[in-house]
Amino acid sequence: MQCKWWSSAAILVGMLFVAVQANAAMITYDLDLQDTGGGIIEASAPFAPAQVIPVGEVVTIDAQFAPGQALRIDGSTDFETLFLGITSNTNAFSSVKDVTVKLLGFSGTGGAMDTYSAPTATARVFGHELGVVLTDFLTSTQSVTFTGYSVQFTVNSQNPASRSFAVGTLAATNAEITTVPEPSTYAMFGIGALAIGLAAFWKTREKQVAAIA
């Protein structure tokens, strides 16, 4: 009887694990940022396999920009926005909740943060996209620069109730593309700094030897 009880418990745990896994979508993609003018930056990229996402799904998105690219958003003028999400070929009314956004490869000014979160549900919107919009999230003295992002949210509502998604999407205003030095550039800088440091060391050492002599 004891073995049977343990067996039943194991089956129950297994069923719970499968249920949890079925309600989570992990999506990754790389984006090549495009400047469309007027401070608007956009990017999209397909990912595979396509994900069918119903209401209640917990969606996690991990994205990186192309090598050498960073996105800078400035809060000093007008009204900045940042959309991070996925796109379907089907329109729907949808909303999300329990949102967390973390900007990767981050640097900021004026005390800007790399993480934003909101537990409450967003307003329902109609369109092909599903994701998170940060709106007017910087003060006039702040800016953020980042090379990728990690986003998590729960699908709060969707009509129709389930859609297939296969494209990652970003759109930003009051934004510009900046460059990030490649690792080889950092290495060359390190070698150059080392050479200068060694030259200064030997020059100082020669003076000390001459003074002793």
From TrEMBL:
What is the residue range of the signal peptide feature?
1-24
Task: Tell me which UniProt keywords the record has, alphabetically.
Answer: Membrane, Signal, Transmembrane, Transmembrane helix
UniProt key word Transmembrane helix? yes
**Pfam families recorded:** PEP-CTERM
Which residue spans traverse the membrane? 184-202
Annotated Ice-binding protein C-terminal domain ranges read 179-198
Protein origin, superkingdom: Bacteria
Keyword Hydrolase listed: no
Q: InterPro entries from the xrefs?
A: Ice-binding_C (IPR013424)
Which NCBIfam families does this chain map to? PEP_CTERM
- In Swiss-Prot or TrEMBL terms, this protein is called Ice-binding protein C-terminal domain-containing protein
